[in-house]
Automatic annotation (TrEMBL):
DNA-binding region: 31-50
GO-annotated molecular function: DNA binding
Protein name: Transcriptional regulator, TetR family
Lineage: Bacteria, Pseudomonadati, Pseudomonadota, Betaproteobacteria, Burkholderiales
Transcription listed as a keyword: yes
Keyword Acyltransferase: no
SUPFAM superfamilies: Homeodomain-like, Tetracyclin repressor-like, C-terminal domain
One Pfam family of this chain: TetR_N
Keywords: DNA-binding, Transcription, Transcription regulation
Residue ranges constituting the HTH tetR-type domain according to the UniProt record: 8-68
Taxonomic source organism: Acidovorax delafieldii 2AN
Length: 211
């Protein structure tokens, strides 16, 4: 039991150190030696639990996906509000995740850029996170169209891309501001208006069928 507990604590320290360095330096510039030193172990200790630096990053990305879009999807599914409010809920939950886990947000931004145009397990995992985001948004938009809340001519896939652009842009602007709370509040207000425009809602404060 003690050995299992010690192993778990070791893994947690390694992952914590990797998160901090991947967020600060990017995946490519953070070495296993740096991670081991920050965690207080040897590089051999890392290899005992992870086959490579890539497998360590993949473990972080899988966990990140569950704590971000995975949790967001579960809350959205269990919340009984109109489709537009669910879109706003998506934005709010993702913003709260980023505020609680700024290192995760930085890693996702770094890795999205570093793995672009690569055929790798890392790129596939980033794509998996965004595929889940797309699925959640597509489902919400389709239900909004079915209920008459959104116009029938709404192009779902194109609108999903627009919403993701708003989402990613807000995250980047907030992070670049030094995670300023006032910037976050202003972005939240602006995104409500942008979201309403994207889905053809006249009044962003009311859930009513589209005319």
């Amino acid at each position: 039991m003690a050995t299992h507990k010690n192993s778990q604590e070791t893994v947690e320290k390694i992952v914590s150190a990797a998160r901090r360095l991947f967020a600060k330096k990017g995946y490519a510039n953070a070495s296993l030696e740096d991670i081991a030193k920050l965690a207080g172990f040897t590089k051999g200790a890392i290899y005992h639990f992870f086959r490579s630096k890539e497998s360590l990053l993949l473990a972080i990305l899988v966990d990140m996906g569950e704590r971000s879009i995975g949790q967001t999807a579960r809350v959205m599914q269990s919340t009984n509000v109109c489709a537009f409010e669910k879109l706003l809920l998506f934005n709010r939950l993702q913003a709260e995740w980023a505020a609680r886990n700024p290192d995760d947000l930085a890693i996702l931004m770094w890795v999205s850029i570093e793995s672009a145009n690569q055929k790798s397990a890392v790129r596939a995992q980033v794509r998996s996170i965004y595929s889940r985001i797309e699925e959640v948004l597509e489902s919400t938009l389709e239900k909004g169209k079915e209920s008459g809340e959104f116009p029938g001519i709404l192009q779902v896939k194109e609108t999903v891309l627009w919403i993701i652009a708003i989402h990613d842009g807000n995250m980047l602007l907030w992070y670049r501001s030094g995670r300023d709370k006032n910037v976050g509040r202003n972005l939240a207000q602006a995104s409500r208006q942008a979201m309403a425009y994207a889905v053809g809602v006249q009044d962003p404060h009311a859930c009513v069928p589209a005319s």
